[in-house]
Amino acid sequence: LQVTVTDPRTVALLFQPVLLRCRYQTVALDPPIVTWKYKSFCPTPQGDNGIVTSPGDVPDVTSPCPDAARTIRIVATKQGGSVTLGDFYRGRSVTILGEAELSLGPAAWGDSGVYICTVTSTQDLEGNNEAVAELVVLGEA
């Protein structure tokens, strides 16, 4: 099993549709389970509100922080042709397209963060089963 993200960092405008591309290769015959999970960026010491108004304001994602300091939630899961949305995303135009591409449209303030594409197969346990994509949503300057 090999999972990759085409664009590890995506910058999008507020209210524009976003597509995070995740691809996988597997030797499994049955379709795997694809899960997209969201993690907020690490909070800044000065209590940044997370609103980004220009590319220079992009959060520093290189500094690690414990998961307890982040907001973490399941965005969507796909098994076969069935997509299930996490509670926070119900009622929004969010889905998994194709094999594993996450469609978030239109982008909202709270969508900036780290997205983890995880592919699970009981028939293919070798290799790397997840990849990470960062999303930064920019507002109007």
How many extended strands? 11
How many helices does DSSP assign?
A: 0
The percent range for helix content is under 10%
> What is the CATH superfamily?
Immunoglobulins
Q: Mean pLDDT score, rounded?
A: 88
The value of Rg in angstroms is 15 Å
Assigned CATH architecture:
Sandwich
Distance between termini?
A: 42 Å
CATH topological fold name = Immunoglobulin-like
Q: What proportion strand?
A: 35-45%
CATH class: Mainly Beta
Q: Sum up the overall morphology in one term.
A: globular
Question: What's the SSE pattern?
Answer: EEEEEEEEEEE
Work out the count of structural domains: 1
Low-confidence stretches: none
* Main beta sheet strand tally, sense and closure: 6 strands, mixed
Strand order of the largest sheet: 2-11-10-5-6-7
3D structure, described in words:
The protein has 141 residues and is mainly β. It has a single domain, classed as Immunoglobulins (Immunoglobulin-like), CATH 2.60.40. It contains no helices and 11 strands. The strands form 3 sheets. A 6-stranded mixed sheet has the order 2-11-10-5-6-7, with no helix packed on it. The protein is globular, with a radius of gyration of 15 Å. One of its GO terms (cellular component) is membrane. InterPro entries: Ig-like_dom, Ig-like_dom_sf, Ig-like_domain-LISCH7, Ig-like_fold, Ig_sub. This is LSR protein.
